[in-house]
Design a protein that fits this description.
alpha+beta, five-stranded mixed β-sheet, 14 helices, disordered C terminus, 573 residues, 23 strands, eleven-stranded mixed β-sheet
């Protein structure tokens, strides 16, 4: 592996994830990663066997006289046996859903760009055999959501339940804090945070949401359905209330870019590129619901239960152990681009139009397909941003070029002006387009994918801004770059921060990955027994930047020697 990496070192040496230790980590992590890749298969196989055995016991029960119950048990047994045949790949076909190499590619263990990585699955029983339908994670969250209708082989199927994980549902339930100001997510152990890690907003009842029962979208079962009422059709058409959130990776620094019309001018656009960020999508319930407080599940059978105002269960069963407020979610790693228009206050229509204008311009300038980039708005008020991520498997490498090439965003603005039927140089409207395109048309902004936003799109609202952006130039960010900061720290072991405070830091390139996890001191802090020293610890509190000015980009707090016991210990104030 080292020989292969060495041959490609000129190309990968600058990648943020590459280091000499990375090769050893990959080699040591391969066996447990191979084992983890089969966790989902084991759960599916175990659940199918349990369903088969439970149905068989009902069929063989001599004391049960209810013929309808026995017929339904026989049907469940047939479905379970079909699922087992599917999981064991008895068809001996390379096109089967659980062909070994296809399955490992889907689970992300081996490369497989022809198949969706870590897909969401639904199991559907056909006339003679079971089928597994795969969808990409972000699409499958809604397409295979509770009660949704699936059309397969000319028949209607409805998602009725999920495959329960081994050990029950409680082990898979987690809680999280969602910052309503910027959209950042604080999952699991980070849910104890009082201040948003990204924007510094204090998290209270007015600035956060605190769901207590997030459940990663499992494999679901869809049952054949003869009649679907008009109310159910309407509810499925309206869809779910789904929110998008993001989280930055540990150890990989974000890269920032500011664009303004001149050296002294106010910034027009602030851009942040985050490689390998986590994108989370959470299903809060039906859009027509009043509270958006999730769903109800029978923790014994995995059947999604009806809310009190809906009709009865289709199979007539009575739930024995019900858990409410369940919010299914999916997450994946994607390269992320956050864009904020800073010149002046912008309304919602402006931001939506700008978002789709930039996406269309990126499609043309970099020759990529519409479905390879996803764009949304995230956050609120001053933290309202455009969020773009690479939806294509394996990424497309566009965000890094936008950050590195000085005239990239100015070029996008000119391309967008041309798309919106304006002269890229002057912003004047092109001849004959005044009546052809009043606000937006399918030649510029409209598409099938953004039809829910059509009423918000108005090309005239972004024209002036794009003209200014076309003449903008990158502005050097305040403070030092990563390399400059490293050189500054190496130039002298101590630097004055305040008349009574001095830093003593031994700083090496291998141990200086930013951002570091909360409440973790940089290591090694010192290699001697200090008489009086301080430690820089990342914290949700305020902080000093490398130039000594207060900043929110990297937050640290100062802790005294009483809080430090030895090198590498977690400090607390």
């Amino acid at each position: 592996m080292r020989a292969v990496a060495k041959s490609a070192e000129p190309e990968i040496a600058s990648a943020p994830w590459y280091s000499p230790a990375w090769i050893e980590e990959v080699a040591r992590g391969a066996p447990p990663a191979f084992d983890r890749a089969f966790i989902r298969w084991r759960e599916l196989y175990r659940a199918a066997c349990e369903q088969r055995d439970a149905a068989r016991r009902i069929v063989d029960d001599p004391g049960l006289r209810d013929r309808r119950q026995k017929e339904m048990a026989e049907q469940r047994e047939r479905e379970a046996r079909r699922e087992i045949e599917l999981l064991l790949n008895r068809a001996q076909s390379t096109e089967a859903d659980f062909y070994t190499y296809r399955y490992l590619a889907n689970e992300g263990f081996i490369p497989g760009y022809n198949f969706p990585r870590l897909p969401v699955r639904t199991l559907v029983s056909g006339a003679t055999e079971a089928h597994a339908i795969d969808r990409a994670r972000f699409l499958g969250l809604t397409e295979f959501g509770l009660g949704n209708v699936i059309y397969f082989e000319g028949r209607k199927h409805r998602v009725a339940g999920c495959v329960m994980p081994a050990g029950g549902i409680e082990a898979r339930i987690s809680r999280t804090k969602l910052c309503l100001a910027c959209g950042y997510i604080h999952p699991r152990d980070e849910a104890a945070a009082d201040v948003c890690v990204h924007c510094g907003t204090r998290l209270d009842a007015s600035t956060m949401e605190f769901p207590q029962a997030l459940f990663e979208q499992p494999t679901v079962r869809a049952t054949r359905w003869q009649r679907i009422s008009s109310e159910e059709e309407e509810r499925a058409r309206e869809g779910y209330h789904v929110t998008t959130h993001f989280r930055f990776p540990a150890g990989l620094p974000a890269r920032d870019l500011a664009l303004s019309e001149g050296e002294e001018g106010e910034p027009l656009l602030e851009v942040r590129y985050v490689p390998q960020a986590e994108i989370w999508r959470i299903n809060h319930g039906w859009r027509r619901s009043a509270d958006h407080n999730g769903f109800v599940i029978d923790t014994n059978t995995g059947a999604w239960q009806r809310q009190s105002d809906d009709d009865d269960e289709p199979n007539g069963t009575t739930p024995r152990a019900v858990r409410g407020q369940i919010r299914p979610y999916v997450s994946d790693t994607r390269n992320l681009l956050l864009v904020r228009a800073t010149a002046e206050e912008r309304d919602e229509d402006f931001l939506r139009t700008l978002a789709y204008s930039l996406r269309r311009a990126i499609q043309l300038d970099y020759q990529i397909e519409e479905q390879e980039i996803q764009v949304e708005l995230i956050g609120s008020e001053k933290q309202r941003r455009i969020i773009l991520w690479e939806a294509a498997e394996g990424g497309i490498g566009v965000w890094e070029r936008l950050i590195e090439e000085p005239g990239a965003f100015a070029g996008l603005a000119r391309t967008a002006l041309g798309l919106l039927h304006f002269d890229p140089a002057t912003g004047d409207e092109k001849r004959d387009w005044t009546e052809k395109c009043v606000a937006a048309c399918y030649d510029c902004l409209l598409s099938y994918a953004n039809q829910l936003d059509h009423r918000h799109l108005d090309r005239h609202g972004v024209c002036d801004f794009l003209v200014r952006l076309a003449g903008s130039k990158p502005v050097k960010a305040d403070g030092r770059t990563y390399d400059e900061q490293y050189a500054w720290l190496r130039s002298g072991p101590t630097r004055p921060l305040h008349s009574s405070v001095r830093f003593s830091i031994t700083f090496t390139r291998e141990s200086s990955a930013f951002p570091i996890s909360p409440n973790t001191p940089q290591r090694p802090m010192y290699s001697f027994n200090p008489i009086s020293t301080t430690s820089a610890v990342r914290s949700p509190g305020c902080a000093c930047s490398s130039t000594g000015r207060i900043t929110r980009a990297r937050r640290y707090r100062i802790v005294g020697p009483a809080s430090l016991s030895k090198i590498g210990d977690t400090a607390s104030s």
